[in-house]
Specification:
Layout lengths: L4 E5 L3 H13 L3 E5 L2 H10 L4 E5 L7 H9 L6 E6 L3 H10 L3 E5 L3 H15 L9 E4 L2 E4 L4 E4 L2 E3 L3 H12 L4 E3 H8 L8 H14 L5 E4 L3 E4 L3
Parallel strand pairs: 1-2, 1-3, 3-4, 4-5
Antiparallel strand pairs: 6-7, 7-8, 8-9, 10-12, 11-12
Helix pairs in contact: 2-3, 3-4, 6-7, 6-8
């Protein structure tokens, strides 16, 4: 079995040189790119299992790179951002990034997040098709697909996990903290990340998804 291949996309070669040995020590193969275009070339050339992408890149930035990658690939993406770049972090999450790390960061923590994302990306060991129907929405859990009135809807990995957590607690209020812990364990997101992904689900699922905000508490998925 081949080792997972990690793509590091950052125009700072010292940062890539710092992170690479830690990843290799954990048994990963590492591919490097220093710009948006060179990252796309690497993805076309190699089988990538996870990408670490800096927001500030030459050619085109990391947010645009996430958008281009998500048009064709579903491997996990971790964004590297500066603390002042909250808007970029939110944009990246909406486009399909799975996690983010703010600079300066702990390299061992970054490697731990890589491991957590790869674990979550593994297909379920039980291949039985569990189908959950909520109103017009049909969720096929093992296949990780969602349809609305028979029309397939493309959700990011994060959005799918969040939708499943909401469905499991339908017609009950669930706090942002509990949603965070149930949908995305072993991550380090702040609670307002939930709001970003709820907005994404509402946009993609439309009126078929009735999620009420409960001020100061969390959310409730309403079903008739």
């Amino acid at each position: 079995m081949s080792s997972p291949r990690i793509l590091i996309v950052d125009d700072e070669s010292p940062l890539r040189a710092l992170v690479r040995p830690y990843l290799e020590a954990d048994g990963y193969d590492v591919v490097e790119a220093d710009s948006g275009p060179s990252a796309l070339e690497a993805i076309a050339r190699e089988t990538i299992d996870l990408a670490i992408i800096d927001v500030m890149l030459p050619g085109f930035d990391g947010i645009e790179l996430v958008k281009k990658v998500r048009a064709a690939h579903d491997f996990p993406i971790i964004l590297l951002t500066a603390r002042r770049e909250e808007g970029e972090r939110i944009a990246g999450l909406r486009l399909g990034a799975d996690d983010y790390v703010t600079k300066p960061f702990s390299v061992p923590e970054l490697v731990a997040r890589v491991a957590a994302q790869l674990r979550r990306a593994q297909p379920p060991s039980d291949t039985a098709e569990e189908e959950v129907v909520v109103g017009d929405i049909t969720i096929r859990v093992a296949a990780r697909t969602v349809s609305v009135q028979g029309r397939d809807v493309d959700l990011t990995r994060r959005e799918f996990d969040l939708l499943l957590a909401l469905v499991r607690h339908r017609n009950r209020v669930i706090s942002r903290t509990d949603l965070l812990n149930e949908a995305w364990p072993s991550t380090f997101f702040v609670e307002k990340t939930i709001d970003v992904h709820i907005a994404g689900l509402r946009k993609k699922l439309g009126e078929s998804l009735v999620v009420s905000s409960v001020r100061g508490v969390g959310y409730r998925l309403e079903t008739s």
